[in-house]
């Protein structure tokens, strides 16, 4: 049988997609539990916070699925879902949702800015490599 090589890029995309889906599913389940607790205790703030967590989790799941094919679409969808989660976290004063939303906002921004960062890094390393060094270095 002939062995088919698997690209590291494909493995990375599958891993990141699984990561997005698992984090989103965890947030969604946590949101349902928080909303149930708020409904049981008749606390409207917990109900709203659970709804915000659930919405953020579902949006993260849906934004992670296209990562297999188009990572740029995932970056834009992640930024949108992060802004929704951040708004819900700030509105219902949920520190955990706010922190997770900020982290995913940073990751979405890094996915969009990656080509620019890569070009800047390559240009910097080329410039540093082309600097002539003196043949005789004076030591102290």
Automatic annotation (TrEMBL):
Residue stretches spanning the membrane: 12-32, 52-69, 76-93, 99-117
Keywords assigned: Membrane, Transmembrane, Transmembrane helix
Protein name per Swiss-Prot or TrEMBL: Uncharacterized protein
Lineage: Bacteria, Bacillati, Bacillota, Bacilli, Bacillales
């Amino acid at each position: 049988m002939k062995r088919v090589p698997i690209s590291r890029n494909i493995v990375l995309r599958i891993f990141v997609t699984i990561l997005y889906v698992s984090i989103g599913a965890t947030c969604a389940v946590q949101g349902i539990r928080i909303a149930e607790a708020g409904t049981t205790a008749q606390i409207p703030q917990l109900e709203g916070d659970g709804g915000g967590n659930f919405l953020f989790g579902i949006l993260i799941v849906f934004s992670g699925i296209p990562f297999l094919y188009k990572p740029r679409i995932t970056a834009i969808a992640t930024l949108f879902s992060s802004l929704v989660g951040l708004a819900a976290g700030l509105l219902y004063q949920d520190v955990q949702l706010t922190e997770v939303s900020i982290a995913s906002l940073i990751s979405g921004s890094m996915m969009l800015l990656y080509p620019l960062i890569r070009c800047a890094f390559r240009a910097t390393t080329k410039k540093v490599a082309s600097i002539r060094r003196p043949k005789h270095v004076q030591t102290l």
